[in-house]
Amino acid sequence: MENKILSTGAKALEVNLDALRYGSFAEIGAGQEVVRWFFRVGGAAGTIAKSISAYDMKVSDDIYGKAARYVSRERLEDMLDHEYNLIVECLSEQRGDNTAFFAFANTVSARNYHGTNECHGWLGIRFQTEPHAAHSEIIIHVRMLDHENALQQEALGILGVNLVHGAFHLSHNPDLLVKSLLDNLTTDRIEVDMVDLHGDAFLHVDNRVISLRLVQLGLSNAAMFSADGRVLQPSEHLRKKNVLVERGRFRPVTHVNIDMLNAARKQFEAEDDSAPDETISIMEITMHNLLDGNDSIDLEDFISRADVLEATGHTVMISDYPEYYRLATYLSRYTNRRIGITMGAHSLIELFHDRYYTTLHGGILEGFGRLFKNNVKLYIYPYKDAATNTLFKVDNLNVDAKQKYLYEYLKEGEHIQQIEAFNEEYLHIFSPDVLKMITSNEPGWENLVPEVVAEKIKTQQLFGYKPAE
């Protein structure tokens, strides 16, 4: 039996009536929408030491220091640092033995009068789980999807109450905490595309799993984390970048995966004068590729894939975009620069099958129109037919006869590019074969994956690897 979801007012009142909690609220943009709930339900004097809203930029800078961007993680963390330290320094001696202090902050850009701005915000809470405990912290990034400013403010207030209540009552269960963020809201109103949990309350939390949960629960269609496991916010990480993506199962990462991405990147960067640091390479896994035969996710398997991907030094994305055109649309939301998608030649053939576009009124033509409309190119890695020893590349692929002219049109328009600098010695390597060798302790698999990947699999015994006795 599922727990009953409390109303927003009931959550705020429960916090207010908790004698252990005492802290401050600092909100920039979109009004004092979170703290308003706590004042409105009554009992706020037992919870709120201070409420502040520094709207003016100069006033904000004077309190929190200068920031390059006001709606950013940097500004949020400055706010949390200042407000939390202030309340602890001010009140520890007086009530520190009986109080778990907290500071909540947000910095938000709601819809402007002309409707021309990005509607998003950063929310965070720094809190003690008990008196004198080291602090823990939850930081989230949200996109507001309502079309009216007042509705966005309303949604933000509800989300903020969910965050405060979740920090105090669900920090022991991160899955429930994340799920509770959308209590009394819907995904039509709010998208949470980043959650970062850290501190004493979350020492055993893997934020990569939390990123997966965001997508799995529908709070976001995609989530990202860096090669060192840090969660990333897409709009900040992809902003003003050229983006190159390789989609795969990566079970495990092989020489082919790395060669495909490196060769595509070399070609991608050679096509304009961008500096190398203006391009970001991403290895992307779709939710579909994470599901097992029972339509559930094996977390151990997911972590194994994440570990080997991180060993290669690449940014990782988890998405709920099985269609390539939806992936391209998502990326173009965050960057106006070039977008490249690299794939094997066999995957390119699959892309021309009508069955993938039955939900679109315009069918395959609409699908390809969406895919290529935002300065997108496909970079194709060849495959070799083991039976005939034929090397299949862009020029000799057997695309469905019905799509032949569409294929030629896209090829001539240079929307589809052949990767030239590939390593033919790797073309016999297939991830499922390597996985089978690992699980059955068959020798030689180490030669089919990068050295760092082999070392990671052996050291952490990933993908069912067991050392020989």
TrEMBL record:
Gene3D superfamilies: HUPs. It comes from the Bacteria. SUPFAM superfamilies: Nucleotidylyl transferase. InterPro entries: Rossmann-like_a/b/a_fold. This is Nicotinate-nucleotide adenylyltransferase.
